[in-house]
Amino acid sequence: MPFTRGNLRTPARAGAIAFLAAGATLFVQVLVHRMISAKLLNNYAFLVISLTMLGFALSGVALTRLLGPFLRDWSDALTLSAAGFVLSTLAVSVAFYRMGAGDQFNVTVAAFLRELLRWLPTALLFAIPFTFSGLMIGALLSDPDLPAARVYAFDLAGSALGALAVIPAIRHLGVEASTLLACALLLAGTVALAPPRRTVARLAAVGAAVALAGTSLARDRVYAMEPRQNSVLALGRTLGPPFGVEYVQWDPVARIEVSRTPPPDPASFTYPSLIGDDRAFLARFRRMLTQNDYAFTFMVDWDGRPESLRGIDRTIYAAAYEASSVASPRVLAVGVGGGFDILAALRYDAREITGVEINSATLDVVTRVYRDYCGSWSTHPRVRLVGDEGRHYLAAHPDRYDILQLSGVDSYSGTPGAAHVFSESYLYTAEAFDLYFSRLTDDGILNVMRLEYDPVREMLKALVTAVGTLRRAGIASPAEHIQMVSARPGNFTALLVKRTRFTADERRRLAGWANANPYFGVSAVPEVHGRWDGFYRLFLDLNDPAKERAFVAAYPFDISPATDDRPFFFKYSTWAQLLPRNEAFPTTVPAMEVNLLILAAAIGATALLCIHLPLRFLVARGVRLPSRGRYGLFFAAIGIGYFAIEIALLQRFGLFLGHPNYALSVVLAALLLTSGVGALASPRLPGGDFAIRFTAYAVAGVVLVLNTLALPLLPRLAGLGFGWRALVVFLLVAPIGFLLGSFLPRGLERLKADAPALVPWAWGTNGIFSVLAPVFAIGFSVTWGIEALLLAAIPVYLVAGWALPPPSTSPAPSPVPA
Predict the structure, then answer these.
(1) What is the CA radius of gyration of the chain?
(2) Is the N end or the C end of the chain the one with fewer CB atoms within 10 Å?
(3) How many CA atoms lie within 13 A of 396 on its CB side?
(4) At 662, is the secondary structure helix, strand, or coil?
(5) More confident: 5 or 571
(6) Per residue in 46-90, pLDDT tens?
């Protein structure tokens, strides 16, 4: 369609609409992940967010048939798509909030799949909004009268802005209000840039606007989240007053809820080792703080008097203080939560207490919203609360501590930056333990406390990691530097690691204190506390690196230390657990492996529907293109390669930037923005018909230089201010982003010249493999590491460079179907 003065299909308007649609898509995708993580366990969030992006691939299927009508009624089609995005986003999110989520803790694969099938159909409806935005972007890229490079550049720039804007939006507006804002901006912008002409399009726009206004006015009632079965919030609803949620605040890391609660009874409470048995102390338990309705901590109503803290010494939180010989210790607690670690330090007269908390909403709750309730400790003169990630704070501050405590630090919620990965944590890697050990005073103690299972695995993995740290520090007998205290029954364990040997007096004092408690005792002894606790002692007694490696290799769970290259501490399942199990040594559901198989099956079925069948029945009959297979390989390869690099960089730079959300804002925005610049520059790349092949060689070289020379230097720069660290990341990401941006527009322009009817199919092909890439990238990363994932992108792009065929010599390209 030639451009005229009255024609709205201009490159400028098309670029602006692509910018809006792409920005809203990425913005809402992150918000959907927050919604899912607030209701479902992280394993399921990983599953759903990957499948929602099938919407882009489905849009490619639709466009193979509808591209002609879409371009003929351009403004009406865009308005209808924007209205569809708005209405489906509102409808699906409200339906998801109100659906029952079942009991997500399952002990068998069959139960896992049964619960999955209960709520998955509703959750997967989130693919519908992305189908509508995919129609908008795909049609603009497929338009033979629009420059693909320019449209793609605006697409990437919009995505970059969405990545930058979503984190502050969540922090200041919350997830629900941010969703409404994104929908309103897309609808208003589309109507302004492509005013609808037909009545049906105008009515759709008005209907979407009315739905937005109504939802905004009744937001709290409309977005009333139904909690999952057996959760903390579900318990409050079931039992009624005095239980009940009284405050909710969104944070980019997790949703924070504060609930009223009566004093717990240790006789019936699931984790009595965390609360003790002092009734006067328990009477102060009047609030509970939860993250995503899962990770919980009590908020103690302390009146500021030292004697009011008597009873906290009857909890497992006090283990390090009872073992320490340091009077008035200097303390650092990673993770503030409701303040239990801070209160324990005050009970033992710590002279200086630093609490490092990654969750800004948590700090806001304890310092501002509940200041009257928590102010006695959050504003105490010996307490300093810091908003930071624990690893980054310790790397940037060389201070040493007598007690360094991590008490169940992890929300299991994932992060926006980790939307496509599986619960990575840099707090429990071998490098993290080395850092903690270096920040201890000569008599300092590291206390790592976490949930433990039966059979033991999580704290056994921590023990294996700690022994490795001690051996790297030149300590020949690690067992002399380690003590362990476990709950009775064994559902929580404290791992104490001392820089120097535990003295005989310290061991006796700790054993006397712990074993006198009805709810926990020293656990690294074979004859006490249950049949599985003896594995701690068994491993410590090996005292030989070769035997320890053999023990780790033979154990039914993966208890090998996590590393910064494979930071999946919570991944201790194996593929072998998919097979029938030995009931003498029971295991749990291998959630990641099951998720990957489900995703592989779902994506395989969708690939059949979205690639093979459309090509065969909708397009192939009217297209004669011998190089069609090479085009398919090209668009598949760049979809896989781009996401492999994106995910590897998000994981690699998250630790360096000091917060996983900064990786989303800085890394993703830098990658997308520079890719947009590369897209604009792609028509001018040297090399003629073989420019893409030379660009693939350049990608290989840049990735090798980045991995070999630049990334190993990052730990030395961890102490820089955030602005400088962000600049370093941008400079490292920019070259590779610039190169990657040229692949898709180059391929689309060449395909437009050869067979424009195949452009929607190429868009769908790229979409399918862009969904496939995150799914298998995580399996690759977990198995072989982040570095291997980054390097694996090199052969993928080399294949893409080879696959793109030279321009066809056919005299008459296939037309876009009317």
Answers:
(1) 28
(2) C
(3) 19
(4) helix
(5) 571
(6) 556 566 667 877 787 788 778 888 888 889 999 999 999 999 999
